[in-house]
Amino acid sequence: MEQLQPPLQNLGLRSITVYNENTELRLLIEEDEDNSSRMLAGYNTYRNKMEGHRTAVLQAESQTRAHRELVEKRALVRVLTERREKLWADLENPEGNAVKQVQKEMDDMRWQISAWRKMVTERRELILKEFESHTLIKKHIEIQNRRYDAIVKRLHCQLMKAQSCHRQLSDDIYHMEREIQDLKRHLEVP
User: Fold this and answer.
1) Distance (Å, rounded) from C-alpha 19 to C-alpha 17?
2) DSSP string covering the chain, please?
3) Distance in angstroms (rounded) separating the CA atoms of residues 140 and 129
4) What phi and psi values does residue 89 have, to the nearest 5 degrees?
5) Does residue 98 contact residue 90 with C-beta atoms inside 8 Å?
6) I need a surface site. Which of 23, 37, 162, 189 has the fewest CB within 10 A?
7) Helices 65-92 and 97-188 sit at what angle, rounded to 10 degrees?
8) What spatial distance separates the first Cα and last Cα of the chain, rounded to whole Å?
């Protein structure tokens, strides 16, 4: 017993020391918890204040023109991204609306091209017919010009002949009148 007593006292002193340390540590922990709860309360107050300021700033910002434009542009971007995603999904789908619309546009364009080609061939035929009729008319005009040139030459010849006859007759009349005058003089002289 005597041998066990000193280690027992040692152990008792150690347990008291450990107990004192534990109580000091509990006190420190309680103080730290109190400090942390105070600091947390301070932070919460600060957060609430900042939240209030943030709300006030956002509200003031929302009333500015730039913010409204920003909100509108964000909404527009959202709508456009959704539309782009729908279009991508539609394009990847072979039975999608975009593919059908493109097919329809291609069919319309093919129809228009065929209509234009048909119209072009019809106009070419009309132009060829017009060209043929113009060539016929030119030939007729050339023939008529030759005929009229021949008529003009004939008339010119007839005019020259008539003028020649007229000059001849004028000369004959002039000579006859001279002869008449000579004869009259001869008759008067006796």
Assistant:
1) 5
2) -TTTHHHHHHHHHHHHHHHHHHHHHHHHHHHHHHHHHHHHHHHHHHHHHHHHHHHHHHHHHHTSHHHHHHHHHHHHHHHHHHHHHHHHHHHHSTTSHHHHHHHHHHHHHHHHHHHHHHHHHHHHHHHHHHHHHHHHHHHHHHHHHHHHHHHHHHHHHHHHHHHHHHHHHHHHHHHHHHHHHHHHHHHH--
3) 16
4) -60, -40
5) yes
6) 189
7) 90
8) 229
Within 13 Å, how many C-alpha atoms sit on residue 132's CB side?
5
Largest CA distance in the chain: 229
What tokens does 50 get?
Answer: 């900042």
What the block records as the tokens of 18 is: 């450990």
Distance CA 90, CA 84 (A): 9
**Gyration radius of the chain over CA positions:** 65
- Can you give the pTM of this predicted structure? 0.35
Q: Over the stretch 42-95, which tens digit does the pLDDT of each residue have?
A: 999 999 999 999 998 878 777 777 777 888 899 999 999 998 888 788 777 767
Locate 16 and state its tokens.
């008291």
